[in-house]
């Protein structure tokens, strides 16, 4: 029975990845329907309602938060609250796409100091999306750069993956993380290489298209606005709006209000402050509501997938299968194999399933084979929901990011994995050189 559970589980995941990347199905439909077919194939049709309740209940609160977060920041962008910040950054970057890309990378690293991918996405996308649009830069590059910067910072001691890995090894968190510090810092520096290449590519593209990015100013932006967009600007309320943004985010980070309550209240106050007329609120809903619904529907689809895989036993069976497939002749290379596959495996397993399900089995097997269990954990951390966090629909922040950047998930995955996977290999090599893997 376990073999059949494993086979169906992998088929479900592969079908979802292929259908999303090839655009045969929308993200929500793929995540919601395909797992249900898998549940039927393993003979658990009667348990589907319980699977749905278990999975959707895990993401319901995040769904409320994402819906109102998108409305909140979308309303603020439409009102022009970020315009002074955008103008300042453009002046500092001298209208150069390369500097904008580097600034995005630095902001992603600094913004992820709190260890929350959701907060980082809200911060970076909220600040940088208007700039990218103003300079006619592709938002897929913003998402890729954010994935690299935040992904590397997600290995920090207060990040979820590192905390889970240290727990599995029953090691002190500081003691476990300290040996990785220098390799991570070096990898962060190496990460500037693809960021610079992206910036140079954007510069070349804009020049080829005849777009004078250096001429982008406050005046040109005002001229490009439609009459409807100009009518929704609130230049006299910039300072009150910025104060409201700081207040809402501060209440959320401090824990005084839950994220859902903070953004729900924040959206209501934003509309009360900027758009008291019902017709204006309807315009804002038309502008940003579709995006919010798309993100929330995809998030609940991910809840269906997680509920079915976890509650049906497919996730555990898949983990056991992966371990059993490792041939004895490759025993010595198990940590390397884990590290190489860590990033793409983020597409298959959520954090708890991998770190609390697969990793303990791998570390125990490694000890039996005379290998270091810690080496397995370090190898997993190079990509498993660290640099791989932004390519999996199992991470709610991924769906939020693609929503705020108005990106198709499959297109984003195909593009971003070209940057995050090689960067994870660089970190794996450095950890090996520093003697942490083998």
Structure notes:
This protein is mainly α. It is built from 22 helices and no strands. Helix 1 crosses helix 17. The two termini are 35 Å apart.
Topology pattern, helix = H, strand = E: HHHHHHHHHHHHHHHHHHHHHH
Distance between the termini: 35 Å
Radius of gyration: 22 Å
| Beta fraction | under 5%
* Secondary structural class: mainly alpha
Layout: helices, strands, pairs:
Blueprint (H helix, E strand, L loop, with lengths): L1 H20 L5 H15 L6 H32 L3 H10 L4 H15 L5 H18 L4 H15 L6 H10 L3 H5 L3 H10 L1 H17 L9 H7 L2 H5 L6 H17 L4 H16 L3 H34 L2 H11 L9 H12 L5 H18 L4 H9 L14 H9 L4 H25 L5
Helix pairs in contact: 1-2, 1-17, 2-16, 3-15, 3-16, 3-21, 4-6, 5-6, 5-7, 5-11, 6-7, 6-21, 7-22, 8-19, 8-20, 10-22, 14-15, 16-21, 17-19, 18-20, 18-22, 19-20
Can you give keywords for this protein?
single chain, mainly alpha, 22 helices, globular
Quick description:
This protein is mainly α. The protein is 75% helix and 0% strand.
